[in-house]
Automatic annotation (TrEMBL):
Active site (UniProt): 258
Domain UDP-3-O-[3-hydroxymyristoyl] glucosamine N-acyltransferase non-repeat region: 35-101
Binding partners and assembly: Homotrimer.
Family: Belongs to the transferase hexapeptide repeat family. LpxD subfamily.
Keyword Lipid biosynthesis listed: yes
Organism: Rhizobium glycinendophyticum
Catalytic activity from the UniProt record: a UDP-3-O-[(3R)-3-hydroxyacyl]-alpha-D-glucosamine + a (3R)-hydroxyacyl-[ACP] = a UDP-2-N,3-O-bis[(3R)-3-hydroxyacyl]-alpha-D-glucosamine + holo-[ACP] + H(+)
The keyword Transmembrane helix is assigned to this record: no
Enzyme Commission numbers on file: 2.3.1.191
Name of the protein: UDP-3-O-acylglucosamine N-acyltransferase
GO biological processes: lipid A biosynthetic process
Pfam families listed in its UniProt record: Hexapep, Hexapep_2, LpxD
Pathway note: Bacterial outer membrane biogenesis; LPS lipid A biosynthesis
Role noted for this protein: Catalyzes the N-acylation of UDP-3-O-acylglucosamine using 3-hydroxyacyl-ACP as the acyl donor. Is involved in the biosynthesis of lipid A, a phosphorylated glycolipid that anchors the lipopolysaccharide to the outer membrane of the cell.
């Protein structure tokens, strides 16, 4: 893939400066003036690109690599062709992430869609009682409700809706078409296109003529440095708050029910569904399409495999998988045993047909 006008190459950073910025060590300091302009995967990297490898499985990709530098850990340096400068890093992926942010800052969050000179578009509606600090951007067709408060450096994308009384901190990005209501949002938060924050949760009680709606009067609290993917939905609490902890990253198409409390620095992948009133600890990782039952607790540092069904509490530090989710080693052993029995039956059937 050639560079395109969406993410043009950087004007150029020397390898010496890039090493200093990322905390890596340039294996040959005489190569410090080499210029880096962009990032690339290993197999198709060319002059001016930087890439990274994580394991010996990248050996074949290196055959076609013409990068101007590669990040890798010390144990993998011998794999790198001699013509390619090496940036030795404790974590190649972390250093590469820092390099990418330096070279392509425009790729870190949704960009401004319009080119109006005014920070606040004439085509936006900002209620007279809303309070916006200096430097807030509001693009066309966005709506800012009564008594909303928005901090400096925050951008509200086109068609986004900020509900009455919502408070949004500084240096946030609320992308096109997102809605934020009944919520308090911290600093440096990214909410991607079409996300829905603060609508009422799914709560009903049986009545003589059908289901009766249970009023939802809690809030959504989103702490600093959270990122929420496109078309993700986070329901407000019933009477308590729904809370997303500092530094947590949530993928696209995730559903988080009312009263859920998610800890700090968690990672939640696409199509995960978390039912109401579940409490999730710090540093928890939940794989794609996993379902988490309501009213349970998941301890700090837990890892949940993709497509798992979590029905009960999970102790801190555990790795769980399967439906119902259980310790991952037990689940994998059961899968291996099942496959072994299947193979045996297939062989027996084949023998009987001979």
């Amino acid at each position: 893939m050639e560079h395109n006008h969406f993410f043009p190459p950087h004007a150029g950073v020397t390898l010496a400066a890039l090493a200093a910025h990322t905390g890596a060590e340039l294996a040959d300091e005489t190569q410090g003036e080499t210029i880096i302009r962009s990032v690339s995967p290993v197999a198709r990297a060319k002059a001016g690109d930087v890439c990274y490898i994580l394991s010996r499985r990248n050996r074949d990709d290196l055959l076609s690599c013409n990068a101007s530098a590669i990040f890798c850990e010390k144990a993998l340096v011998s794999l790198i062709p001699q013509h390619i400068p090496v940036l030795v890093a404790k974590s190649a992926q972390t250093s590469f992430a820092l390099a990418g942010a330096l070279l392509h800052p425009e790729g870190l969050r949704p960009v401004r869609m319009t080119s109006e000179a005014s920070l606040i578009s004439a085509a936006a509606h900002v209620d007279p009682t809303a309070r916006l600090e200096d430097g807030v951007e509001v693009e066309a067709m966005a709506v800012i409700g009564a008594n909303a408060e928005i901090g400096s450096g925050t951008r509200i994308g086109p068609g986004a809706v900020i509900g009455p009384g919502v408070r949004i901190g500084r240096d946030c990005t609320i992308a096109a078409g997102a809605t934020v209501q009944v919520a308090l949002v911290g600093n440096n938060v990214i909410i991607h296109n079409g996300a829905r924050i603060g609508q009422d949760g799914f709560g009903y009680a049986p009545g003589p003529r059908g289901m009766l709606k249970i009023v939802q009067v809690g809030r959504v609290i989103i702490q600093d440095h959270v990122e929420i993917g496109a078309n993700t939905t986070i329901d407000r609490g019933t009477m308590d708050d729904t809370v997303i902890g500092e530094g947590t990253k949530i993928d696209n198409l995730v559903q988080i029910g009312h009263n859920v409390r998610i800890g700090r620095h968690c990672g939640i992948v696409s199509q995960v569904g978390i039912a109401g009133s579940t409490v999730i600890g710090d540093g928890v990782m939940i794989g794609g399409a996993a379902g988490v039952n309501g009213h349970i607790k998941i301890g700090d540092g837990v890892q949940i495999a993709a497509m798992s069904g979590v029905l009960a509490d999970v102790p801190p530090g555990e790795k769980y998988g399967g439906i119902p989710a259980r310790p991952l080693k037990d689940y994998l052993r059961e899968v291996a045993e099942t496959l072994s029995r299947y193979d045996s039956r297939a062989k027996d059937k084949g023998a009987s047909n001979d």
